[in-house]
Amino acid sequence: MAGHRGRGRGVAATAASFVGELLITFGVLLGLFVAYSLWWTNVLADRQADSAAHHLREEWTQKPAGGGDSKAAPHPRSFAAGDSVGFLHIPAMGKDFTVLIRMGTDPEILNEAVAGVYQEPYAAAMPWAKAGNFALAAHRDGHGAKFHNLDKVHQGDSVVVETADTWYIYRVDSTLPQTSKYNTGVVAPIPEGSGYTRPGRYITLTTCTPVYTSRYRMAVWGTLVRTAPVDAQRTLPPELR
Q1: Predicted confidence band at 62 (pLDDT cuts at 50, 70, 90)?
Q2: Are 171 and 158 in contact (CB under 8 A)?
Q3: So which residues are the catalytic ones?
Q4: With 192 labelled, which of 3, 28, 69, 221 sits at a CA distance of 20 to 30 A?
């Protein structure tokens, strides 16, 4: 009997050891997956965004794109999904914070570390439009995580959009820390919950919240306060100095 009990304890110990090794292996694999999701995707996405940004600036140097407030090019060109539009600057998220803006919010676009222009359920109005909402989305974690610190943007902060020939300077009027991810009204032409009651020249920034989840959405709203032409040296406006 003693021999049977000994063999039983040995089998149980072996099984426990095997289960322990499986748990350790699972933990290592989970850690690698998290590292891939939150670090390596950032590396790859940033490389793609840097390349696209460099290409856009070269394009501007060779043949500037039109902007609605430019006397030299009063008629803006149209943009297709995936096209680069310009750059978004948000000093509250870092002195040199800049993100490339591209048309569309499909995953294959946002995954390239950019801010995407909403095309549905509402087609965003471009900055040079006489009225409308220039609504953008970007990832908060992974794939560049460009809006990771969007919660640091508050009322009164400046948000600047740079196009080929015009700086568009917005002032943040209000924020929405959390809402349903199905609340499409936050990107409507007159965004719901923003406090705006009439058509204007607005900007909306959206991302997931809380961090490391996609359970809810947060939004930041601003109003265009002025525009400035881009000079040959692309001198930064005072809000970015």
Answers
A1: confident
A2: yes
A3: 139, 208
A4: 69
Closest by CA position to 166, among listed 62, 237, 94, 91? 237
pLDDT at 166 over 60: yes
Q: Report the DSSP beta bridge partners of residue 171.
A: 158, 223
Question: What's the CA gap between 165 and 56, in Å, rounded?
Answer: 13
- In angstroms, the CA 121 to CA 138 distance is 16
What's residue 95's pLDDT? 87
Q: Which has more confidence, 175 or 37?
A: 175
| Cβ 195 vs Cβ 174: under 8 Å | yes
pLDDT value for 41: 78
**Is the CB of residue 197 less than 8 Å from the CB of residue 140?**
no
> Structure tokens of 161?
């959009």
pLDDT tens per residue across span 99-126: 999 999 999 999 999 999 999 999 999 9
Reduce the DSSP state of residue 117 to 3 states and report it.
strand
How far does CA 161 lie from the centroid of its chain?
A: 14
Picking from 145, 22, 171, 166, the residue whose alpha carbon sits closest to that of residue 90 is 171
Tokens 């060779």 sit at which residue?
62
Distance separating alpha carbons of residues 107 and 121, to the nearest angstrom: 16
Question: What HEC string does 41-65 produce?
Answer: HHHHHHHHHHHHHHHHHHHHHHCCC
CA distance from start to end of the chain: 84
Which domains occur in the chain, in start order?
Answer: 44-240 (2.40.260.10)
Instruction: Return mean pLDDT, the chain.
Output: 86
